[in-house]
């Protein structure tokens, strides 16, 4: 077992703690999976790029959850996160981003861009958002509505284009 696996907390507790338990069924239905394991939690594994990458790179069917300091919840689904050299975008036709404000809303990238690997930030989805640790502001891409089908207003994610991320979670779906 890796150190990441040893630090996992029970899924039920994690979801109840973050008040997203009610969205579990919707998130699994949107992806076509029935269960998941928590592979990364910034509150346990550390809120940094190395810890996040070690937990998700090389895995398939990863769903991320971003929780802001204002309790907005959103994220992304990636069918594959391969190991990449810096500044590469994964093309993933199954990937999507989502918001959990007033029910689940999903948006697909017109160009099928997905996970972006660069030197910073901790986590980035191509033309959607950049997630930094809580000491820095995270951002929603100003032009996200140009790249994601059905996305009219980027404030659906965090209520604003800049925000503080309080927690980042990675789930491996099965």
UniProtKB/TrEMBL annotation:
<dbReference type="InterPro" id="IPR006571">
    <property type="entry name" value="TLDc_dom"/>
</dbReference>
<feature type="domain" description="TLDc">
    <location>
        <begin position="14"/>
        <end position="111"/>
    </location>
</feature>
<dbReference type="Pfam" id="PF07534">
    <property type="entry name" value="TLD"/>
</dbReference>
<protein>
    <recommendedName>
        <fullName>TLDc domain-containing protein</fullName>
    </recommendedName>
</protein>
